[in-house]
Structure prediction request, 331 residues.
Amino acid sequence: MNNTLNFCTVFYSNYLPYGLLLHDSLKKTCPKFHLFIFALDKKCYHDLKSLNLSSTTIISPEEFENDKLLEVREKRTKAEYCWTVTPFTIEYIFRNYKLDLCTYLDADLFFFSSPDPLIEYIKNKSVLIIEHRYTSKYDRSDICGKYNVQFITFRNSMVGRQVLNWWSNKCLDWCYFRSEKGKYGDQKYLDDWPRRFKEIGVIDDLGFGVGPWNMQQYYFFRKNNKIYGIERSTGKEFLITFFHFHTIKFSDSVLDKKQFYSYELTFDAYKLIYKPYLKKFMSIIKKIKEINYPLNFKINFAQSIQINILDYFYFKLKDFKRDLIGHFRLI
Prediction:
């Protein structure tokens, strides 16, 4: 795996479509990569193995869970346990595969261009983290934290392992889907890392970490078959490396409306980012059906997604007009 970018992710069987899209996006954007997938249930493990995915290693719960994890597993929800094991996935990889670098990825990320720049960003650093960069009206940094766990790179160094060990112990002790005494899941623990530890790097590349909570700050456009953004406040242009599809949730045959947040979705974000992702999602569903995956999507499912997105993200005609004017002015 020399000269290979190594990544890991973790999810249950209900997140299989997202994990497959993540893998597919890495295949298309990253010349040399390896993805370690930690399957949190037996069905997920066996389904992933049956798909014979290239450039992957599938790891079962029995392979990486220790007594401490098994003890807390019964006391936490699926989401909370998934967050709890995040630092343990990197620890397992460093211990068993002796890699120099590994990056944890949330399963609902999708890469639009190569993550190769992280090699430059990690120089002289042992850990790389990314800010939420909230749009002001959606700012939840006081509750959810300044940084997002979505994409964290660790170096297999003394400092990197020190941070991992500290984070693992904190997640074992407390990792719940609520805000309590300055804690929130596995994420709020990151807030003071740049002060607490040495060699912590914060990626300032706007293309790393675009998501529904900050996309309102940017115009999006296509150039040379790539998706770019322009920061509205500065006119700064940047290449989109990945987008975090945090708001797209599915439950069996319907869109899970309860998990939607009311983030404003502009026309360019929908056309260039969301719509292509949803089309790819439908193609993945067809592939999953071949292994009898229990998701009985209706024929008109794609159309219902678009309608629901329109409903939940509150499209406004004036926003389209503003964006079009902005594009002609800046591009």
